[in-house]
Amino acid sequence: MEKIKEILNNFNVRGSFVEAKLFGSGHINKTYIVTFDDGGEEVKYIAQRVNTNVFSNIDELMENVFAVTTFLMDKIEANGGDPERETLHYIGTKQGEKYYSVDGGAYRVYRFVDKSKCYDSVTSPKLFEKSGIAFGRFQRYLSDFPAESLSETIPNFHDTAWRYENEFLPAVENDVAGRADACRDEIALIKSRRGEMSKLVDMIENGELPLRVTHNDTKLNNVMFDEDTDDAICVIDLDTVMPGLALYDFGDSIRYGASTAAEDEKDTEKVKLDLDLFEAYARGFLSEAGDSLTDAELDNLAFSAKLITLELAMRFLTDYLNGDVYFKTDYPEHNLVRARAQLALALDMERKMDEMNAIIKSLTD
Ligand code: ADP
Ligand code: GN1
Ligand code: MG
Predict the structure, then answer these.
(1) Which residues contact 51 (CB under 8 A, 6 or more apart)?
(2) Atom of ligand 2 nearest to the CA of 54
(3) Whose CA is nearest to atom 25 of ligand 1?
(4) Pairing between strand 16-22 and 100-102?
């Protein structure tokens, strides 16, 4: 168990160590739930080994997280919320650092969000709507955060066209894992959609879409829900909070949560966009963030869901071609299976684009 006990010794945690277990289903960091005993009281922490292959500058990353969570605490308080529960709290090291380095690993510790649980799939439209409220509110609270003070933790994160040219095409060309022949159809499908990949970044450049401070990784398991009421209480996984588009946050939530199947469903026939879930999320998100969105943003919400889905299909396929070096995988074909599921979802969104746009219109008219 990776000497987690010794690692935790270096942090300002309360009580004595009881146990540590691997936790959650994130694709990037290695996450543990750690239990301490403080005079008979059970105290839980989340300890993470940060993926320094993905995040190369951990100092800048932790500065971002610190700045955003401090800012959010004031906002939550000013809005009558509970800053203890409604944002992440990280625990510093005994040496006064934000993370601890040992054996080439970088570790950080968060308070476990009290009385909370996490979902890997949507169990009801209401639950999904609540996650929309949480991500919409997150964006609203950060609307006056000084964006220029944030470091770009992963440059060009949602620049789909940049990823196509600089990551996807080279991966196909180099074919380092010798897998390209096994996915010619998927490669061709992605290539056929190259034209629309630049749409949103072009609109940013033309001044038609505003850059905002956004989360950029808004899947359902990056929000914690209250154990009793199922209200979405705390947005987590703040590693990609950067200047971005409101559309990315909306689109990524839809991609993950409004699908009729898991992100890695093997039977692509099962993968469809559920319009009721689309509507539920949109209602929640727009109830918080809607007033601040421009007409150009509202007009592109539905498109953004398709674009982000296509982008992730391309990212999974790129990783498959590169030999699985970015996302955690459970079996050798995992990234290919994920890419196929995302492509099936993107195609279904294409078919339902008019209906999706009509739903947004009905919610905003
Ligand atoms: P990754 O980048 O790998 O997705 P996350 O920060 O999202 O890492 O953490 C992985 C999982 O750990 C989350 O989906 C959630 O289940 C759990 N988790 C993370 N931070 C907390 C926290 N502060 N309180 C409770 N659970 C957490
Ligand atoms: C990763 O870290 P996690 O598991 O919440 C990825 C997202 C993808 C997602 C797909 C930093 O999110 O961009 O959309 O997997 N995060 C990073 O499930 O690349
Ligand atoms: Mg996560």
Answers:
(1) 28, 29, 30
(2) 11
(3) 112
(4) unpaired
Tokens 């039977």 locate to 267
Who contacts 232 (Cβ-Cβ below 8 Å, separation ≥6)?
Answer: 130, 131, 133, 134, 223, 224, 225, 226
Looking only at the bridges linking them, the beta strands covering 30-38 and 16-22 are antiparallel
Among 28, 311, 338, the mutation site with the greatest number of ligand 2 atoms within 8 A of its Cβ is: 28
Hey, what are 309's tokens? 């889905």
Query: Which residues have CB under 8 Å from 32's CB, separation 6+?
Result: 4, 20, 21, 22, 23, 46, 47, 48
Do residues 352 and 302 make contact, with C-beta atoms less than 8 angstroms apart? no
Q: Supply the mean pLDDT for the chain.
A: 97
Q: Which atom of ligand 1 is nearest to the CA of 89?
A: 23
Supply the DSSP symbol for 93.
B
Residue 270: predicted pLDDT: 98
Q: Taking the model in full, what pTM does it have?
A: 0.97
Give dist(CA 293, CA 247) in Å, integer: 10
pLDDT of 290: 84
341: left (phi over 0), alpha (psi -120 to 50) or beta: alpha
Buried b (16+ CB within 10 A) or exposed e, 201-214: bebeeeeebeebbb
Which DSSP letter does residue 165 get?
I
SS3 114: coil
Shortest-distance ligand to the CA of residue 221 = 1
Cβ(313)–Cβ(342) below 8 Å: yes
Q: Which ligand is nearest to the CA of 252?
A: 2
- Listed residue (300, 276, 259, 158) closest to 217, CA to CA: 158
In this structure, the number of other CB atoms found within 10 A of the CB of residue 292 comes to 14
Which residue has tokens 């004595």? 16
Distance 341 CA to ligand 1 centre (A): 24
The rounded distance, in Å, linking the Cα atoms of 298 and 134 is 18
Give every residue of the chain whose pLDDT is below 50, as ranges: none
